[in-house]
Amino acid sequence: MRPGxxxxxxxxxxxxxxIPAAEGLSTRPDWLLGLLFGAGGFAGxxxxxxxxxxxxxxxxxxxxxxxxxxxxxRYILQVFA
Length: 81
Description:
By secondary structure, the protein is mainly alpha-helical. The termini are far apart. The chain is flat. The model has no long low-confidence stretch (mean pLDDT 87). The protein contains 3 helices and no strands. The chain has one domain.
C-alpha cells in the first residue's frame, strides 16, 4: 500500500471516530470490515506481484476487460429492472 493511501485511511478513521453525528446516526468505523478489506487487499497485492510474471499481459487485459464489461452490464440492467 502506498504511504499516502495509508495515511489518508488513518486520518479518515480518526476523523469519523471523533466527529459528532446527527441524532441517531453513527459514523464509527466498522473495524472488522476494515480489517477484512485490508487483509484481502494485502493478499491480492502479494499474490498478484508473485504471479504476474507467469500470466501473459494480453490475458490480464482481456480478463480485466471482461470483468469491467460484466459489472457495467449488471449495473445497467439494475437500472431498467
